[in-house]
Amino acid sequence: RDQLAQAGISINKSACPDNTRYQDVKDGCTTVAGLNSNTVAQVINLKSICGSTQITGGNELGHTDGGQSHTTGYKIDLATNVDACITGGSGGYFSAAGTRGSYARYLDKCGNEYVREPTHWDITVSQTCSI
Question: How many whole angstroms separate alpha carbon 87 and alpha carbon 81?
Fold first, then answer.
């Protein structure tokens, strides 16, 4: 949390209590303590590219786990205020890549996936992607 805050990235809710699913906390919670270092670095890069950035989902219990998921630290959810930055391409950094299910899908120039779900961006980070 400190590293993200120092980079100017806000987190929408306080951390989840240990061993507690986010669905079991009144008004929810957002944990970022178990994010992979590439995921943290990529969110900081996104802040540089897109400006104001807010995390709305991290690696809290209650998300699907296994593989490249939230609980393994590869996925992060961001608020929709980055819509124009991602969908506008940001000078070739992002490109449209069809859909995942019925949701618009974008890739950054390194292959990280950005999916615009109804209330947030679901991002899967496999590597840090320099600006």
Answer: 11
